[in-house]
Amino acid sequence: MEKHIVRKGESVISLSKRYGIPVDKIWDHPDNSALRQSGRKPAILYEGDELTIPDLETREESCVTEVRHRFRCLVPSVQLKVRFLQQGSPRADEPYVLNVDGELSRGNLNSDGWLQVHVPADTRKAIIRLGEEERNEKYLLKIGRLDPVSEICGVQQRLNNMGYYCGGNDGRLRGDMVRSAVKRFQAAYGLEETGELDEQTKERLSREHGS
Amino acid sequence: MTDEEPDPIDQYEDSDLLVWIVPGRRAVVRDDVAYERVIEAWINRLYTHRVRLSSWYFPHLTGGASDPLPRDTVFRGYAASMQHIFDGIYSVSGWHERFFAEEESDGSSRSRDQGTEVPVAADEDNTVDIGRTFFVRLWKGPLRILREEAARAPRSTVQLPPLSLDEDTREVVNANAVFIMGDVIEFPVHKFLLACGKTECENIVFNGEGSFFLGTSLKEGDESPPTSVSIHDNMAAMRFQLLLNAALGAFYSQSPVFAGSAASSGPQASGSGGSVYSRGLVYGATLLDPTERGPNDQWVIFTNQWGYRPGVPVSAPSASTDPVPANIPTSGSANYYPPTLPFTSAWSCSPCTLFLTYFIFNEYGYGSRSVANEYSSNPSSLPQSVYDRYDDDAAVQQFRLAHDPIRAMNVSDVFGDVNVIGFNIPPSTSTGRTGGHEIGIVRIWPHERLMSLRGDTPTQGFIAAYNPLNGESFFTNSNLEEHGQLYIFEASGSLGARSGGGQKCGANPFHWEVITDNTLHVLWGRAAHDPASVVHRLRMTDNPGSISNTRPPRYIREMFINKNTEPVSGRHSQDAEFYPLVIFHPVAGSGTWRSSARAILSDAGTVYADRAVPFPTMKEAEGGRFPQAANVRRYAAWHG
Lengths: 211, 640
What we know:
By secondary structure, chain A is an alpha+beta fold. Chain A is built from 6 helices and 10 strands, in the order E-H-H-H-E-E-E-E-E-E-E-E-H-E-H-H. In chain A, the strands form 3 sheets. Chain A has a 4-stranded antiparallel sheet, with no helix packed on it. Chain A has a 3-stranded antiparallel sheet with strand order 4-3-7, with no helix packed on it. In chain A, helix 4 crosses helix 6 (about 200-210). Chain A is globular, with a radius of gyration of 20 Å. By secondary structure, chain B is an alpha+beta fold. The longest helix of chain B is centred in the first third of the chain and has 29 residues, at about 70-100. At the A-B interface, strand 3, strand 8, strand 9, helix 4 and strand 10 of A face strand 1, helix 3, strand 5 and strand 6 of B.
């Protein structure tokens, strides 16, 4: 077993590929129960979290000699699920170009504004360009970088992703920007406009963001 | 990690590359400036003007000396109002940080091209809402128009900074945009106010077909301007600016237009390269107002061409059949220019006054078509004999002494080497018959003055001005902020010093000159006898400068300033107020000038929506519509 201190951008999914151990083997390990109970998810860890990585399991296969055998290695992939909106309305059927490690794929968002594609599990970033080329609207999707909503940076990330801009995503408070954005979010979703990050607001924020 | 950081608002600085022609809302660019800096400057301005903005858009009770409100009530009202403004500023600031985000770094170059950073979780649902954007709206300046024109030429090597415009709103949507000298930027105050909580702004958008000159830069549904909320503006300054643009930069070019010293004076852009030269309008035009239902119901500068009169094409002169044309420059003057140079023409001295009254203040009823009438009924508006009489300094002095014994001054003490000297006319002579001349003295104010206005949100404003070619403010003397700065506004193309038998036409066709330190010497002219221009005497108490003659300055007229406190009606009640000013040119030789007229540019509306100087470039103006200097020389030789 190995204790792994989570670094920025890591998730159980990316660590699964790195260590060659299935996600559920890591996540369900008894030593990780505290993380599970704290509200973390396999896809959403926080920098500094301590994760137990079980030992690599070996398996023996018996084979006859002088014969060619075929072993199939399942390369883990993950699904990238992002819904694009414009002030709450789906950006239905908009064309996109997705760049994952230099490989381009083109398509259209679905009628609800969703992009749903599979990418290799260790993909750290993807660039998506939306709309016509001259619009130059690009997003750098940093996969696995979403922090838990319990942290300030996780709140900032979700607010920013949802268009309630509050500055950077780094956990640093800049004046009243977060408070102001929280108020706008609360107003939009019928919550009491306190500007406070109470549990109800965080829960709603997480729910509306989808993660 | 919850480190406290300084409030970002404190870190955003204004930019000296921008001149705020409507503070907090609209700016003209002085030199290359990145989009990011532009937004930072806006945030800085919003913060700087927070008190005024809150009082305009979220008015609160302040009490009064005689009937004071409880302090608690005043404070709570003020705090709530200010909180609205801060909510808006934070919203803009947050968008700024996102839109112009740099990738966390590995020390490599900025990664703006990679786009806005969005952290997402794999195998989970994520939402990305572009939310409220604060893209600015652009009107392209002369340098950009000219460089785009040059870039379209075959094998051109001209490269412009990247620019992506939203087709509907002309918003700049790419973060790596760079604005260049002369561009005019409008900031989305309507979106800012919405972010502040002013829900009336919800349906307001930039009008991609509108113009800041006409008050139509925003729309709400089909209404432009919007009626549900007033957004601060300075319409008097915008209209005055439009006239200045027509006069100073109506035909702009990247090539020096004139020979000699005038050639070296083009404003230079340091970043994106190149100079911009301008050739103003020259001589002989009239103004048509839209109430006359002229072509396309537009405000029209109807040019009269050099020597034009109905049926006489200057572009194909004939010595034997053509009558003496009105307003023809002399051969010495025409020889001053390269033979292929097109001689453009437009307004003359008489409409100088009329343009101001008509266009800025919507005052109808006097002077429309005055120049056209004059030309069609007189053999010559500028008889050579009269002209010659003024061509000698001594003779000028004698003449003036004879007709106005109040003063005897050297001409150069009054105007310097400018073009007014020959047309001081006897008081008994009516304007337009034997060479009347009108000038204007205009008091301009710092654009920033708008933010000192209390009460309701201002939209009418006051006269202020900038150089349309390079964006420099014309208000240059900070000691005069309380008084305004006086300028000569004079349309007079062909009245320069005559040397060897000619007028020096075109070199200084429009006279816009600061009156240094507001020190007025004696001016003279026909303005006192022109009903359109007799408005107010110069208000001595407001003038910190001096006047050289202690007698009441009966020939000095401060036109238009203080005449009307609401020069442009609040809600733009007349359709005519939205009509663009268009240069029309009579195609000589085919009937009356109105029926044969064509606009120099065919689609005036589009030009207004696209350009900060909504008039043709020199290249567009050439196009065979104006006679060349060689033809004018021939005329001059025959007649003068």
